[in-house]
Amino acid sequence: MKTNVKSNMIYSPQNYLEVLTGKCYIIHGREPVLKQVCRILKENNLSAKSYPLKETVRAVRVRYPIVLVDCSEFTEDMRLVPQYRWFRVPDNFEECG
After folding, report:
1. How much of the chain exceeds pLDDT 70, in percent?
2. Please, which residues bridge with residue 84 across strands?
3. Cα separation of 11 and 72, whole Å?
4. In what side-by-side order are the strands of the sheet with 5-11?
5. What string of DSSP letters covers the chain?
6. pTM for the full model?
């Protein structure tokens, strides 16, 4: 079955942004991860549209090529708040390695 999911890997925000922009970014804890990723995508004229993991069926139905990105964060008391999102990649996307 053909799918628009283009990777079996879960990308870190930094790796995802580097694959799309060719630039290296540092994601810091002063601002939500998802907000930083979306801002950087927009600054590079790329789509910032994403879908939460729980909306996988919807993300797959859109038919754009997508990859899963880990946008998890830590709270001030160091509790992990998991957040995985489906983000768009170019039609010609190919993984390295």
Report:
1. 97
2. 70
3. 11
4. 5-11, 66-70, 84-88, 50-52
5. ---SEEEEEEE-HHHHHHHHHSS-----TTS-HHHHHHHHHHHTT----EEEGGGHHHHHHT-S-EEEEE--EE-TT--EE--EEEEE--TT-----
6. 0.91
- Residue 27, both tokens: 């994601």
Residue carrying the six token digits 């729980």: 54
**Residue 72: pLDDT over 80:** yes
Q: Provide the token pair at 30.
A: 């002063």
At 88, which amino acid appears?
A: R
Using CB atoms within 10 A of its CB, is residue 47 exposed (0-12), middle (13-18) or buried (19+)?
A: middle
Tokens linked to 84: 């995985």
Quick one: tokens of 10? 């879960």
